[in-house]
Design a protein that fits this description.
It is a single chain. The chain has helices at residues 5-21, 31-46, 48-60, 64-68, 74-89. It has 2 domains: 5-46, no CATH class; 48-89, no CATH class. With 93 residues, it is an all-alpha fold. It starts with a helix and ends with a helix. It is built from 5 helices and no strands. Helix content is 72%, strand content 0%.
Length: 93
């Protein structure tokens, strides 16, 4: 995640407050509930790359021996695998 997790809550609160103040949205629930929903959505979206990186690391564990012996470049293999998954799943990072 490129934005520290601690900033997601204040950012979501600021977004909701700004939208309400400028009357871009009409609340059908409490501002706190909307802020929590925005927080969850933002956190999920920001975690996409972290989850993808974890998945790639798990996939590459199969090749630990070859990587350790120097037959494969881990960083290059990681990047190529990540790019392939991003393309296959149409993930936007």
């Amino acid at each position: 995640m490129r934005i520290p997790k601690g900033l997601v809550s204040p950012l979501s609160r600021e977004i909701v407050e700004a939208l309400c103040k400028k009357k871009f949205i009409e609340l059908r629930t409490s501002q706190e509930e909307l802020t929590e929903a925005v927080y969850e959505l933002m956190l999920d979206e920001l975690m996409v790359e972290d989850k993808l990186n974890k998945e790639v690391r798990e996939l590459l564990k199969k090749y630990d021996m070859e990587i350790e012996k120097g037959h494969l470049d881990y960083r290059k293999l990681f990047d190529l695998t990540k790019q392939k998954i991003v393309k296959e799943r149409n993930i936007i990072l």
